[in-house]
């Protein structure tokens, strides 16, 4: 069903929906950016369209909604444990095609990557419904077209905004609370980015050859292991576990799941001081090959969705898209 309605009508219905759903969308947070006088765009709960920042790319993805930065899994004493409570409300998330496709990648890792599903991820993920926000133009550093993630049909409702009118494509019967004049329109999808890259085919990549290539040495001096690329990436899914014991009673505490990243010092540290990837170049090699080779070999498509957030966030101006191109060039050189 496709309809159009005014912003005022849309906001009224959104308010009604908020009784059943927690509505989340990109929001501009003043003075919360990298510098004291800059803002940052990230996902927060909203109650109207006016609160949403839909004209800019969010600095952080929506993954922190279903994969929180810090998540308490359960509380424990010396004799028993109690699972942490979660809000009963369902989740309605406004996001772009690349981020919906990124959620598909997280689903593969947490729900389909092995015998058992990740219980804690599934509890949050099954509450989610997507509202697709169209993209008329590509943002800086985006290469979603090259990664084939600029389009999706996995959404409950699509939205297009034109001045004071809101155009909705409603696919989920639970969201047919919106009413308006029937019309025909198409959700905007980016057809061309500001630049394109050629992604190597996995059957052309010699993983052993690539792993030993000198190209990775460049990142030993350039990368500072801050982990920003991991934490803004919508498909990075690594975490570590912490047991926190309370000062009042050291036999009582909580177990937390906390974001971690392959670029950060200590990520692969083991007992005895052993570490799988000590240099920053080795870590960049691991991340790159995981995004365009290992994941693809297992699931049949690339993990990276080309949102460009890693390039946006890197303080050393390291371009991940350029890194992919280098791998492609090396693969082409093979006889």
TrEMBL record:
GO terms for molecular function: iron-sulfur cluster binding; metal ion binding. Pfam families: Fer4_22 (PF17179). Residues 213-244, 295-323 form the 4Fe-4S ferredoxin-type domain. InterPro entries: 4Fe4S_Fe-S-bd, 4Fe4S_Fe_S_CS, Helical_ferredxn, Sulphite_reductase_A. PROSITE patterns: 4FE4S_FER_1 (PS00198), 4FE4S_FER_2 (PS51379). It comes from the Bacteria. Gene3D superfamilies: Alpha-helical ferredoxin. Keywords: Iron, Iron-sulfur, Metal-binding. This is Anaerobic sulfite reductase subunit A. It comes from Romboutsia hominis.
């Amino acid at each position: 069903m496709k309809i159009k309605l005014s912003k005022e009508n849309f906001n009224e219905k959104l308010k009604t929906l908020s009784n059943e759903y927690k509505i989340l969308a990109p929001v501009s947070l003043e003075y919360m950016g990298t510098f004291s006088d800059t803002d940052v765009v990230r996902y927060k709960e909203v109650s109207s369209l006016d609160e949403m920042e839909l004209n800019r790319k969010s600095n952080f993805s929506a993954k922190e909604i279903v994969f929180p930065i810090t998540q308490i899994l359960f509380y424990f004493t010396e004799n028993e444990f109690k699972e942490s409570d979660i809000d009963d409300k369902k989740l309605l998330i406004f996001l772009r095609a690349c981020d919906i496709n990124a959620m598909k990648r997280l689903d593969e890792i947490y729900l389909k990557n092995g015998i058992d599903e990740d219980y804690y991820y599934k509890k949050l993920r099954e509450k989610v419904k997507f509202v697709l926000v169209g993209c008329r133009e590509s943002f800086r550093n985006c290469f979603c077209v090259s990664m084939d993630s600029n389009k999706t049909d996995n959404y409950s409702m699509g939205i297009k905004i034109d001045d004071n009118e809101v155009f909705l494509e409603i696919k989920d019967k639970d969201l047919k609370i919106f009413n308006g004049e029937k019309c025909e329109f198409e959700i905007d999808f980016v057809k061309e980015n500001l630049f394109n890259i050629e992604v190597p085919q996995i059957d052309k990549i010699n993983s052993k050859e690539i792993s030993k290539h000198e190209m990775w040495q460049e990142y030993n001096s350039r990368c500072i292991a801050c982990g920003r690329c991991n934490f803004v990436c919508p498909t990075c899914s690594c975490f570590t576990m912490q047991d926190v014991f309370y000062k009042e009673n050291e036999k009582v505490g909580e177990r937390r799941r906390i974001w971690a990243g392959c670029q950060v010092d200590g990520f692969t540290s083991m007992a005895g001081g052993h570490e799988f990837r000590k240099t920053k170049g080795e870590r960049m090699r691991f991340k790159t090959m995981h995004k365009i080779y290992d994941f693809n070999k297992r699931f049949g498509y690339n993990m990276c969705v080309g949102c460009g957030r890693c390039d946006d966030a890197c303080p050393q101006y390291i371009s991940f898209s350029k890194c992919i191109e280098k791998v492609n060039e090396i693969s082409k050189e093979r006889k």
